Amino acid sequence: MSVPTDFDDLADPSLLTRFLARAQERFGERLAIASSLGAEDVVLVHAVAGLVREGAPPIRIFTLDTGRLPQETYELHEQLEARYGLRIESVFPNTVAVEDLVRRQGPNGFYHALEARHACCAVRKLEPLERALRGVDAWITGLRRTQSVTRTETGLVEHDGARVKLNPLAAWTDDDVWSVIQRERIPYNALHDVGYPSIGCAPCTRAVEPGAHARSGRWWWEDPEHKECGLHVARLRQLEAARRQEERPLSENG
């Protein structure tokens, strides 16, 4: 599938609703929004609700419930559905795969080795994402270039294997995001108010000091260039290979 170029004029924050409308017009029911329920993602939910009020059908929104999310994230999930009348679908990891993962590396093995953390993300995030995207031609994310050193080259529209990935907030700043949240009084995760600029799984996220980089509280024990779970980088296949390597019997690994 070729990368569409008819979104290039819609990078400005004021054009978000138009961006989503164009995506819906182009991809129809084969379009979905992957939401982590972070600050960027609640802005997307708000924009979808605006389209629905104008008579458009809702865009499918799903979130990956890894089984280790903070309670505040679940509370926000309910608040958003109640506020906007939209369903946010929860996609869960395979139970047998999670049981096997914990049996092999323990409940917190991801702290002890990068490969173990990648294996955890593969089971709890990557496989559920691939399942959620079956039948989808294009997916929308809340990625922004200023979020981390691994995202500085994020394009408005990208190839993602056989799919198109749309990042309508790619050029947005922190101020752009929070000005919309505050002006529109959009519900957001309560952890943002206590030092959590970026929120993932509870054991892999912590508060940061004022002025610290937004992603510094994610996987804080790792080097900055490693701070991705694999959902948004070409390294996904490498992470999958690492997971398969770890799962090989000890006799095969020497």
> Under CATH, the topology is which?
Rossmann fold
Radius of gyration: 18 Å
> Superfamily at the CATH H level?
HUPs
**Helix share bin:** 25-40%
Description:
By secondary structure, the protein is of the alpha/beta class. It has one domain (13-247): Rossmann fold (3-Layer(aba) Sandwich), CATH 3.40.50.620. It is built from 7 helices and 6 strands. It has helices spanning 16-27, 39-53, 71-84, 95-105, 114-132, 174-184, 236-247, and strands at 31-34, 60-64, 88-91, 138-140, 157-160, 163-166. A 6-stranded mixed beta sheet has the order 3-2-1-4-6-5, with helices on both faces. A hairpin with a 2-residue loop joins strand 5 (157-160) and strand 6 (163-166). The radius of gyration is 18 Å and the shape is globular. Residues 232-243 and 250-254 have low confidence and may be disordered.
